[in-house]
From TrEMBL:
GO terms for biological process: cellulose catabolic process. Residues 392-552 form the PA14 domain. It is an enzyme of class 3 (hydrolase). This is beta-glucosidase. It catalyses: Hydrolysis of terminal, non-reducing beta-D-glucosyl residues with release of beta-D-glucose. It comes from Exophiala bonariae. Pfam families: Fn3-like, Glyco_hydro_3, Glyco_hydro_3_C, PA14. GO terms for molecular function: beta-glucosidase activity.
């Protein structure tokens, strides 16, 4: 495209039209000048496509922390290539990911989406993924720039942070990605940074990103994260998402005509949009084209590989693992039958299929029995799991959309379809005949109880709803509504009702819902997402004591027990943070009770971020399995039975108690402010500095074999680079992978520094009895410098640097040094 020529042909109205979305996922096309629309899609762990509600199935990759746990840049590059190809199948030209914020606390609702607490691990992995995505011609929009490190009131929270911590910890993953991969788009964060919203932050967007880093791509806002007209345009926010626009359109034109900004500011923003359109033109994606997916055995196999590589063997006393497939096995726990494949919120997508731990284990082991042991739902499970639809008795519920409320006689049906998931987030639902945010929905399903029981029913909404069983009102989430954390924090709490139902009888469940404008709940700082949504829950009342009793009895009867516990997308999601680091009620008691009756026990924890494990000493083996995407259960089974040797390493520190974490006293908002009081001491930098005990350290992860590192050699070509090399021998009986972690320590610095900082890493596959050589290049600018607020620059200090090499941040086995002769300063990338 001749960008300058096209620009000269556009009217001001057309230019401004290009600077916002037209709907949830598309920008505006201008056919007159052959300017196509851009389609964007989340996101960090797969390509959902242009429908969150009832979307086209997709490959779901393991969550961010799981990808972080692979410590494998080659694998992330492959994952990126797969995401790029899936994006093309979904006619998407901009992928909204990866997410590379920092887990400054274990409680961040979206901690699972980001890779690591460490900027180098995050940056290197993000760079690899971006290279992979962009190698297909698709653009990666890295997010959220910057300091969206917690969810509470994310639109108004103000991260108060020192320049040094901002540069060294929070901007660094973006800076590394920019240096190594040149992502062609950035998404701004919702929050403020030192008093100014990221989406209108001149220092971040103009001075750092476009000035120092010479970024020449597209900057877009997070969804409903634009808060001004002239300020955002001037700072460099190219596109307001989603559409229809709130802040551009005639308001942006008025800003020009009133002289608040000049048309040249608009032109700069339009240039970035046109450049982006030009960059993705070779993909040949047609506007608003229909979506496909890549669902084949190769995708499945690769997803399984990635999930396997992410699993971390936290503990294996007495070599309980790997288990035998030939012994009698009990699979116990609330996460066994549930495929916890992803965290919640905008990272969620509809997977091709999701394999539960139980299914994966049953496919491997000969004799498997199951007991639930405890429940772990936060809200009631989806009602659609136990309902069916007449006349064919297919599982699920029927959904009907109307323009008018039920009070209007013979109201016209917009459309009807079947759903298998009664959690319906309608944010991006569209229909050509709907021209307002206010419309009405009915959801209907039949229920036939297998036993006489009291049933619980529930409604959680952003909007208003009532639930009827055989015409009787059982749940009312309309007359009075309690604010809750649902629907990205803008919805209600769960409203529960109950009714005694009888075996063999048929019950009609009918829910009447009206969309978001009818909601009585209004919250500041939460993101109001489009049209709202409803979640319908329901299940028979369960008796916790008998669940536990049955599980303990089963555990006594088998040779080995696998206990599946953890969180799921209900506990880790968007718009709110976790209240504590604990497992759902009942899980700790379950683990302890099973450990008492059968010592041959493995605990599998699934969570995106750390949970407390008060039973850690009572169990011999623990696997951390994250949210593993489509192949969750298969990957777990591969590791459990030794078909794969675990090689994952923790990408974050695992505290004993939530109180131990560096941000503990600084997570709650105070007059809208969140003070990053721990400064640069995030994660292991904190635990090291104050010498505080930790459950499992950053970088930790065991294997079924053993490695020995030796022969460290450090050659410095100061002030530019240093080469760190050595050997890794596999002295065990199985082949496996080891991550060589290179930390630097600089005790004679002029400024306070962490005890050690990760500066590079590499993952090696070593066959049993073999030795592999590693050679790692350190860029000394990045490895040795600190950010000086006084100099407003990086300072590479002279002195002797200690190189510490090991297999975790607390298992350092080799040490060396190199010297830098003169101090120098630098800026840029
Ligand atoms: C999230 C973004 C996401 C966007 C679109 C927002 O709520 O913060 O990460 O890309 O929604 O789904």
């Amino acid at each position: 495209m001749d960008i300058e020529h096209t620009l000269s042909e556009l009217t001001l109205e057309e230019k401004v039209g290009l600077l916002s979305g037209v709907d949830f996922w598309h920008t505006k096309a201008i056919p007159r000048l052959n300017i196509p629309a851009l389609r964007m899609s989340d996101g960090p762990n797969g390509i959902r496509g242009s429908r969150l509600f009832n979307g086209v199935p997709a490959a779901c990759f393991p969550c961010g922390t799981a990808l972080g746990a692979t410590w494998d840049t080659a694998l992330l590059r492959t994952a990126g290539e797969m995401m790029g190809r899936e994006a093309i199948a979904k006619c998407v030209s901009i992928v909204l990911g990866p997410t590379i914020n920092i887990q400054r606390t274990p409680l961040g609702g979206r901690g699972f989406e980001s890779y690591s607490e460490d900027p180098v691990l995050s940056g290197d992995l993000a760079a690899a993924l971006v290279v992979g995505i962009q190698s297909t011609g698709v653009i990666a929009a890295i997010k959220h720039f910057v300091c969206n490190d917690q969810e509470e009131k994310r639109q108004r929270s103000n991260s108060i942070i020192t320049a040094r911590a901002l540069r060294e910890v929070y901007l660094m993953p973006f800076q590394i990605a920019e240096k190594k991969a040149k992502p062609k788009a950035y998404m701004t964060a919702y929050n403020k940074v030192n008093g100014v919203h990221a989406s209108e932050n001149t220092q971040l967007l103009r001075d750092i990103l476009r000035g120092e880093w010479k970024f020449d791509g597209l900057v877009l806002s997070d969804w409903y994260g634009t808060y001004s007209v002239a300020e955002a345009l001037s700072a460099g926010l190219d596109i307001e998402m989603p559409g229809p626009s709130r802040w551009r359109g005639s308001l942006a034109q008025l800003s020009v005509s009133s002289g608040k900004i000049t048309e040249s500011v608009i032109d700069d923003r339009v240039r970035a949009v046109l450049r982006t359109i030009d960059r993705v033109a070779p993909l040949g994606i047609k506007d608003f084209a229909s979506e496909g997916t890549i669902d084949n055995p190769e995708t499945e196999a690769k997803l399984r590989d990635i999930a396997v590589s992410s699993i971390v063997l936290l503990k294996n006393s007495g070599k309980v693992l790997p288990l035998s497939e030939h012994k009698t096995t009990a699979v116990i726990g609330p996460n066994a039958m549930l495929a916890a494949y992803s965290g919640g919120g905008s990272a969620q997508l509809r997977p091709h299929r999701a394999v539960s731990p139980f299914e994966g284990i049953r496919a491997r082991a000969k004799s498997v029995r199951y007991a639930q042991g405890a429940t772990n739902y936060k809200k009631l499970p989806m009602l659609s799991n136990i309902t069916f639809i007449h006349p064919n008795n297919t599982p699920g519920m029927e959904m009907r959309v109307y323009h008018d409320p039920p009070s209007v006689q013979n109201r016209r049906l917009v459309e009807a379809f079947n759903i298998t998931d009664s959690s319906c987030f309608l944010n991006d639902y569209t229909h050509p005949t709907l021209h307002t945010n206010l419309f009405y929905v009915e959801v209907e399903g039949m229920l036939m109880p297998e036993a006489d029981s009291v049933y619980l029913f529930s409604l959680t909404v952003n909007g208003t709803a009532k639930l009827y069983v055989n015409g009787k009102l059982v749940v009312d989430n309309e007359t009075k509504q309690q604010p809750g954390d649902s629907f990205f924090g803008s919805g209600t709490a769960e409203e529960i009702g109950s009714m005694a139902l009888h075996k063999g009888e048929e019950y009609k469940i009918l829910v009447q819902f009206a969309t978001a404008p009818t909601s009585k709940v209004r919250k500041t700082g939460a993101t109001q997402m489009g049209l709202g949504g409803l979640q319908i829950g329901g299940c028979p009342v369960t008796d916790a004591e008998s669940l536990l009793f049955d599980a303990v009895n089963l555990a006594k009867e088998v040779d080995q027990v696998i206990v599946c516990i953890g969180l799921n997308s209900e506990w880790e999601s968007e718009g709110w943070d976790r209240q504590n680091m604990d497992l759902p009620p009942g899980s700790n008691a379950l683990v302890n009770a099973i450990a008492e009756v059968n010592p041959n026990l493995v605990v599998i924890n699934q969570s995106g971020t750390p949970v407390t494990m008060p039973w850690v000493r009572n169990v011999p083996a623990i696997l951390q399995a994250w949210y593993g995407g489509n192949e969750t259960g298969n990957a777990i089974a591969d590791v459990l039975f030794g078909h794969a040797n675990p090689g994952g390493k923790l990408p974050l520190s695992w505290p004993i108690r939530v109180q131990d974490n560096p941000a503990f006293v600084n997570t709650q908002l105070e007059d809208g402010n969140v003070t990053y009081g721990e400064g640069i001491y995030v994660g292991y930098r904190w635990y090291d500095k104050i010498d505080r005990e930790i459950l499992f350290p950053f970088g930790h992860g065991l294997s079924y074999t053993e490695f020995q590192m030796s022969q460290l050699s450090v050659e410095a070509y100061a002030p530019v680079s240093a080469k760190v090399s050595g050997n890794v021998a596999n002295i065990g009986h199985r082949s496996g992978s080891e991550v060589v972690q290179v930390y630097l320590c600089f005790p004679t610095s002029m400024v306070p520094r962490p005890v050690k900082e990760l500066k590079a890493f590499t993952k090696l596959l070593v066959a049993s009895g073999e030795t592999e050589k590693f050679e790692i290049e350190l860029d000394l600018k990045y490895a040795c410098s600190y950010w000086s607020e006084l100099a407003n620059a990086w300072v590479l200090e002279k002195g002797t640097y200690h190189v510490l090499v090991g297999s975790s941040s607390q298992k350092i086995t080799l040490a060396g040094t190199f010297d830098v002769a003169v101090t120098s300063t630098w800026t840029g990338i």
